[in-house]
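Checklist before submission:
- one chain only
- standard amino acids only
- sequence pasted in full

Submission:
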Amino acid sequence: MLPLFALCMCLYLVHNAGTSTLTTPPQSAVVVAFEDVYDLSLLANTLSDQGIDATLIIPDSYENELYETLIDVEVLTVKLKTEESTSAEKRAVQACEALLTDEGIAKKIQEIQPTFTIFPALRHDGCLLPWAKTIESIPAVWTRNRDEELYVFEYTNAAWPVQSAGLWTRLWTSFSRRTKFSTTRDEYVAYALRIAGKYLPDTGLNLDNLYTDLRLILWGSDVVLRSDFVPLTQLIVEVGCHHCRGAHPLQGDLHKSLLEFRFGTVVVLLDENYHTLIKELAEKLPQGRDGQALVWKNMKWQSSSSAMPDNLFIQSGIDRQDLIGYSRTRVMLSHCADSELLEAAFHGTPVICFPRNSQESQNAARAVQLGFARSTEDIRAVSSEEIANTVNQIHETMDYRENARKVSLAIRDRINPAVDRLIYWLRYMARTRDWNIDFLAADPSVKTFNEDLQFFLGLFVGIIIIGISSTAGCLLTRYLVVSKRTQRSKGRYAR
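Returned file contents:
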């Protein structure tokens, strides 16, 4: 009797699980990266770790830029031949056409039937939003930097930029933002939509309604770095540190070698163009057993025949988080891109920033403001000896590490980590894909009191300026007329 009762209970539970709206069916995601392959492969790896079948699509020329320890992520490549001088927009258009014409990928996507299609906004949306609609997948946009955040929010009205600078700076920023937005639409989106219309059935998408089917915006940053906007909807999900985790032990040989240097390790994440500076820096650091080791993680640089300092270790296949979070790491040299700086903040490691563009400069300024970084804006004017002195100052000053520890606790001690938010909202979208979730969307017509106030102030100031200009013009005209009459009355113009 008991076995029969147990069997009935099992059948009952299975039936209820099958009919419950909270049951999560098997899910899959396709992550598409025309550029920034490393960061997008990190995202695909996170999805795979959390039980979502992940497939990563990249150009074949970027295979060497993949995350070193991808686990259970299927990588598909599209053939793309471009010259180095090709602009990013043109390269993205070529990648789009290569993706849409690849029969092997089309067949694979038909087999997978992906629940989600995740991709960056800039130089991806014009191609992949129509593509996601065609394969009946839920699109989710990933923002990688400030430009993409402003671009997406300009297109969707899902958030408003926050500016604290003066009036003229705000006006200039708004003008620059609008210019970038218009340039991207003209130089990429219009061409990509034309290509999508050529190879895909009629999706009905155009420049004005491109983001109509967008269900989720994954904000690839963190409030520790910046909070330059006010979200108007819950569909903006902060997931910048989704991949942050504790450091794993280093490889046996490397760990054994680093232990021989008493004053710890300096980690370098700079690109291959800095190899001369890195070599000179290693020579300037203390040598021998009472010295410091320098570990340079780089996947592209080819070692030369010249001799390297004994304290310089060049690694290509090691996870950078294992280096940043290594217990003997004292400072990190980085360009301070979003993902690198967030990893340093998570592990509480002081940073010396070498920004290459305005976005990285803003990140560096924020890290300096938080007290765990130093910034070197003009690398050409800085010598390896000055950098070595900066490394020693950070190593000998407790304030940098203490501030870094506080920032680390601020990220780690949150109620729900970034990866939990990422997975929760993806699964929520999968459960509600057939629902009308307009109640979560932002109202594009909403206005604030501040906007109304600015309008009336602008109108008032405009009336004053026009009034002053008109009055001045009238006075000047009257003066000229009276002056001319006076001259005529005196016979000055008589012949």
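Reviewer check: The CA atoms of residues 116 and 426 lie 8 Å apart.
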